[in-house]
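From the pipeline queue, job 12 of 40. The input is one protein chain; the requested action is below.

Action: predict structure.
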Amino acid sequence: MKFATLFGIAGIAFLSSLTAAHCGDVAELEILGFSHDGGIFAFEEYGVQDGSGFPYANRYYIDTKTDKFLEGTPVRARIDDESATVAAVRRKVREGSQIFIEDSELSENRGHMAAFNAVTELNADPNRVVVNPRPVFPPIDAPVEFRLEQFPLAAEGRCEGLGDLAGFRLLRIDAVENGRTVLLHEDKALPQSRNCPTGYRIGGVQTFFDGKDGPVYAVLVAVQGIGFEGPDYRWIAVTGKL
């Protein structure tokens, strides 16, 4: 009995060490909001790097008309000290980003989280989402559907020997026009900022209706990549007009 008990404890400890050894880095996501006219969408991702243990925070500011980053962004910060806190690096990235748009304006115009699908959720479709774009019931807007498709795509000059890499395309399906499909995004090459991506999933949809040019959206896409200790997840967004 004593031997069996000791063996059981040792086995649990061994399995726990295996789990820890294969723990990737899943970035937390915070929606910062939109500019008052809906022309800018901003979000932040943050966490602790697997392997190094260094806290990091990245802020993304996107022109919703062009689906391009504002010049001078993203704003990235990392503290190369394992004892540093995530709160400290988030303060650092916040201080370095207020020249683009102040947090106070963004927080006043957060919009609506029409959908959210965490990477830990196992029962939702990671490639499709259909939403009522704002919390009005009965709905006064047509439903909006987004679909994600991924396909093999090599990264030129990097990631050799690290497995199959992937790009993605994002489609919008119009529910009121007999399923008319609009291509919103399609990768032609893998940007350096994604490192070595192996998969994607729709993580959420944020909408904003109070802008001068009409309602806009941001589809949040979780990017799975190859990390030091396991798969990592980072965030990107595709923006446009509803």
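Job complete. The chain has a mean pLDDT of 90.
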